[in-house]
Specification:
The structure holds two protein chains of two kinds.
Chain A lengths: L1 H23 L4 H6 L5 H10 L6 H13 L13 H36 L4 H15 L2 H15 L24 H8 L2 H38 L2 H8 L4 H29 L3 H6 L5 H10 L3 H29 L5
Helix pairs in contact in A: 1-14, 5-6, 5-9, 5-11, 5-14, 6-9, 8-9, 9-11, 10-11, 11-14, 13-14
Chain B lengths: L3 E14 L2 E14 L2 E5 L6 H8 L8 E3 L2 E4 L2 E2 L5 H7 L4 E4 L3 H4 L6 H10 L6 H14 L5 H6 L7 H13 L5 E5 L7 H17 L3 E6 L2 H7 L2 E6 L2 E7 L9 H8 L18 H5 L8
Parallel strand pairs in B: 3-9, 3-10, 7-8, 8-9
Antiparallel strand pairs in B: 1-2, 1-4, 1-5, 5-6, 10-11
Helix pairs in contact in B: 4-5, 4-7, 5-7, 7-8
Classes of the chains: A mainly alpha, B alpha/beta.
Chain lengths: 329, 286
Amino acid sequence: MLTLGSIAVTLLGLLFITFVIGRVMPIDPVLAIVGERASQETYDTVYLQLGLDKPLMVQFFYYLWDVLHLDFGTSLLNARPVSEDIARVFPATLELATIGIIFGVVLGVPLGVLAAVRKGSWIDQIARVVALVGYSMPIFWLGLMGLLVFYGILGWVGGPGRVGIFYVDVVPSVTGLILVDSLLDGNWDVFKDAFSHIILPASLLGYYSLAYVSRMTRSFMLEQLSAEYITTARVKGMSEWDVVWKHAFKNIRVQLITVIALSYANLLEGSVLTEIIFSWPGIGSYITTALLSADMNAVLGGTVVVGLIFILLNILSDLLYKVFDPRAK
Amino acid sequence: MMSTLLDVQNLWVRFPTRNGVFDAVRGVSFTLGRERLGIVGESGSGKSMTGRAILRLIRPPGIVEADQVNLEGQDLMKLSEKDMRSVRGQRISMVMQDPKFSLNPVMTIGDQIIEAYRLHNSASKADAYNKSLEMLEAVSIRDAERVMRAYPHEMSGGMGQRIMIAMMLIPNPEILIADEPTSALDVSVQRQVLDIMDKLVKERGMGLIFISHDLNLVADFCDRVLIMYSGRIVEVCDADKLHEAKHPYTRGLLNSLPRLDAPRDRLEVLERDPQWSEAPSVSGSE
């Protein structure tokens, strides 16, 4: 199958690039493990253990083999397997990004449609301003202001972190998503606490995706609303609501999927600033911390996972195209 | 005199622009009986706008004004948008130029036809389906069941236009506005589509407004012709007497057509007289 083949090639390319990055970095992987005061003998042993004496091509196949077995090596910072770390931090990002994208889509799409249908009206103007603010405000500023107002002054939401200190590790981790785990455990208190913690950073991320999604929706809709089949629908005697949702909207679904998938992928990479401000132990802050401490195994492992997410979302949107557009079959 | 279906008096279509108001249609009056009324004119003469204004499909900021657009005693200009919706499709319908664009690309043809029927008839899905099949067969579509399941991009232009005609006639309207229905089609299928449309319009005793820039086609196909120039009607004549038209614009248009029986090296160029657009609109009422 063509799709499977292209996925394999993309994946191979991704792994090749991360491999090359790992090799050209001016960081000695042996020194990073054994430390600077190790004897030459120790150094040589580890050097051989890592297979660094083999040709690059062979090393690449070792690397491929390891990655395919989900072995990204050991983190230098905490001496744990990188895959374990990622399995811990990724669900945190997944939870945040998913609620964020739901927020962005549920509000952004109708806002964009409305702005297109009532082009030039006050709704369109408001949508424009909302999106402009979303595009141009630095997220750390909005995040800090949000914390100050909603957590510090009003006390409506939880503060930084995924749950309050009393709820840490209360529910057993099954999926790694605290909202889901607490529901599985039937622990409402943890769920409520986790929800109050996630709502602010998720809305913030959602706001950014809303800005993007609503602008794109608007321009897709404007294009469709001037199409001739829309006139046909009106000639049939259809109400404007049905013309918009049953005819025009059906035609922007494919384009919307692309936009939403991209936006979701962006959030899933982990937005470093949001995660740092909200002390969110996600993949964005994980990779950043690893990068700053030259923990290459962690950086490359994280990069591969992020790349994989992009590939997976692309496959998913390709599949959805075929559902929504008869011409793509 | 035949019974009047539609009586349009002093119809204006206006578009406010940066440099003042642009009048696309300027005080057009005509009546339509159970006949085939042609409207001809060049691009921008206001013929399409006239058709769309009757259905009140001109979108804001465009403005439609008229003393009356009387459909069998009911003034369409006075109807609310909601009441107007029950006129569209059910009483006056329209076939547009290119089926490639006028059919929704992501809906099956069946769904689009069934929808047109069920908007005005409280029929069950199964009844609407059967009715749609019948209608497709009436426009000479073979293998109608397969076509019902197909999407517009799987159809040829001629089929697409016959499907459009089926879709627009299924609620049984009294008037059909055909806006250049054959301009996007191959010459070889033009006649076929016209014949089907003509047959159905006649059988049902409908009025047809046929908008076209093709003089010969209109002369051939219609009963009566309105010639429009810059938003006004400059001449009205019986279609079979179109070649005896007197107005210099109509004469100019006729003379600029190439003819097989009288070949010429150089076709005549239409000389426009600014007076034509100033002269009051001729009434097209019977």
